[in-house]
Amino acid sequence: MNFKTRVTELFDIEYPVIQGGLAYLAYSDLAGAVSNAGGLGQITAMSLENPDELRKEIQKIRTITDKPFGVNFAIGQHGRRFEHMVEVAVEEKVPVISVTGGNPKGVLDMVKGNGIKTLVLVAAKRQAQKAEELGADAVMVVGHDGGGHLGRNDIGTFVLTPEVVDSVSIPVIASGGIVDGRGLMAAFSLGAEGIEMGTRFIATKECVDAHEKYKQAILEAKEDSTVIIKRSIGAPARALKNSWTEKILEMEKLNQGYESIKDYISGKANQRFIYDGDLENGFGWAGQSAVRINDVPTVRELFDHMIQEAEKISSRWS
Ligand SMILES: Cc1cc2nc3c(=O)[nH]c(=O)nc-3n(C[C@H](O)[C@H](O)[C@H](O)COP(=O)(O)O)c2cc1C
Prior knowledge:
This protein is α/β, with parallel strands linked by helices. The chain contains 14 helices and 11 strands. The strands form 2 sheets. The protein has an 8-stranded parallel β-sheet. A 3-stranded antiparallel β-sheet has the order 7-11-10, with helices on one face. It is globular and about 50 Å long. The site of flavin mononucleotide (FMN) has 28 residues, from strand 3, strand 9 and helix 9. Flavin mononucleotide (FMN) binds next to strand 3, strand 9 and helix 9.
């Protein structure tokens, strides 16, 4: 089967499969493995302490792979801290920059004219049109099924993807709930020209920073094992359900704003779960797709399996 789309052409990759930004997890080991397997790996910039750390990660990934990779900027909650990080990414001439969590204009303007490809994450048709107007090279549509931060309107991947495909002319990448070749082929059918996966990549060998207990919790997840927190502060995000998220939801019912829950939703609480494997004193993001994940392969094995499955489906269709 021919996997060439405008997304593979744009990013100069073999398969139209993108590893999503993964806060505190997506560094050069994972991103390099994804790029080496033929997809587009991404380093998540905003989890790094400072621009120098980002420069080191960029230099490190170049020792792991000579293939294209991206740097992801979740700009929402970081004030203007991201600007120095973007400057480093531009200086280092990274092949791709992706941006999410706020108005992408600032980042897109900084990147313009440097030969860097840009990708904007959206969760609504209007956002996708805006990204296209601002000059993004492609958009990634994240449906309600996905892990981590989501759109506010709870629209699932299956509705959002074709809506966006029909409303922009730049390539669209589908995200949220995709873990395998079936998801890849479904995304193609919806008009997307590539997929992004987040949760699936946590349960891989090269996601070296995720604690074994986090990976295990993903393997054991049922279809109702995730929950949306932070909705009361306008930033809904999907995490694995546990006593910690239950506490957050109780507090959110009181509607006392960000200050009242900030310690519970902090990066530290996230890190206790994902780095220390403390499954009851913190939280870990994951998508509904966790229920579909039953192994911890290498990234290469994951790609092989996904591509074989997609090819099987394709030959059955034809
Ligand atoms: C643990 C985790 C952390 C995430 N952190 C980020 C991030 O820093 N930046 C970003 O753009 N998206 C982030 N996301 C969203 C993913 O990039 C992706 O859009 C989402 O996981 C897709 O849904 P899926 O998990 O069903 O594949 C995160 C998702 C997870 C599961």
